[in-house]
Amino acid sequence: MNEYPDNELVNLVCENSEEANDVLYDKYNYIIDIIINKYKRGAYYLSVDINELTQEARLGFSDALVSFNQDKSTTLPTFITLCVERRVRNYLRQADTLKHRLLRSAFSLDDNMFGADSPLENKIGSSANDPQVKIQEEEDVINLKKQIDALLSPAEKEIYELLINDFSYEDISSILNRDIKYVYNTVSRIRVKIRKIL
Questions:
Q1: Closest to 94 in 3D by CA, of 35, 157, 52
Q2: Which end of the chain is more exposed for a tag (fewer CB within 10 A), N or C?
Q3: How confident is the model at residue 32 (pLDDT cuts 50, 70, 90)?
């Protein structure tokens, strides 16, 4: 089964083949290791058990295999990386929310904190909470993403997606099995292209 290409193995996974699932897991397990190492410090800070975080990463890996769309230009390792990282980030975000919920609820927005001349609510209020501003910002981001998507080649998009998800050049080189110089050169081209539309 090792000799099967990824797309056939993914099809077999969708048909509940445990053997195909194991082959893909053995082949791309290094992605989980890279992402867990990347978020280890944050997990320690939030008192999150690394074993629990690794379990979440494995669930993200399984989700990636089941929902991978072979018609898109993204490769399987890139898609696995994005799914695993998203799952790990969400898990840590939830842990952060639980940890700080008590602290946030301890302050009243109506109180004048630490002898301030106005309530805390006035100090932290900003136009960022205005729904119209938020909608405009979201539309601007969507438009920028569309412009970038139209500019970049499939290979550049792959590297760009990993780059904006905080992967280092070394991680990208390892995930895509590409020479580090190729990654540097591609990132350079991406920057030149994006600079033109900003």
A1: 52
A2: C
A3: very high
